[in-house]
Amino acid sequence: EEPGTSFSLFDGDIEGINIAFEQNSRITQEWFFGDQEQKSIVTISLRPDRHFTKIELHHTNIPDEAFDDMVHGWDTSYFGGLKDFFEK
C-alpha cells in the first residue's frame, strides 16, 4: 500500500487511511470513529530482538465506548491471528 490510500477491515467495521510505511519497521494509520474530532492514530512498530521480532502497538484517541472492544480485537483478532499463523 501507499501513504494516502484508504483501507477497510472486518467487513467495514474499521476504516482508515494509511499515513506512512517504513519498510520492515513501521506502519502508521489513521482510524475513523464516526464524528470524533481527535484523530485516532495506530502505529505498529517492528524491531529485531536477537532471533525474534518484537511488535509494539500504539493506538491513540480510542473513544471510551469503543475501548474494551478495541483491546479485545487487538488481542484476539489481530495479534491472536498472527500468533496462530506463525505457530502452524
Mean pLDDT: 89
Ends apart, CA distance between termini: 27 Å
- Looking at the overall shape, the CATH architecture of the domain at 6-62 is 2-Layer Sandwich
CATH topology assignment of the domain at 6-62: Alpha-D-Glucose-1,6-Bisphosphate, Chain A, domain 4
Major sheet strand order: 1-2-3-4-5
Number-wise, the strands total 5
**Helix content, binned percent:** 10-25%
Shape: globular
CATH superfamily of the domain at 6-62: START domain
Q: Biggest sheet, in brief?
A: 5 strands, antiparallel
Q: Report the portion of residues in β strands.
A: 35-45%
Q: How would you classify the helix and strand content by structural class?
A: alpha+beta
Count of runs of 4 or more consecutive helical residues? 1
So what's the CATH class of the domain at 6-62?
Alpha Beta
Elements, N to C (H/E): EEEEEH
Please compute the radius of gyration using only Cα atoms.
Answer: 14 Å
Low-confidence stretches: none
Overview of the molecule:
This protein is an alpha+beta fold and 88 residues long. It has a domain at 6-62: 2-Layer Sandwich (Alpha-D-Glucose-1,6-Bisphosphate, Chain A, domain 4). It has one helix and five strands; from the N terminus they run E-E-E-E-E-H. The protein has one helix at residues 67-87; strands spanning 6-9, 14-22, 26-31, 40-49, 52-59. The chain has a five-stranded antiparallel β-sheet with strand order 1-2-3-4-5, with no helix packed on it. Strand 3 and strand 4 (40-49) form a beta hairpin. The protein is globular, with a radius of gyration of 14 Å. 2% of the residues are buried.
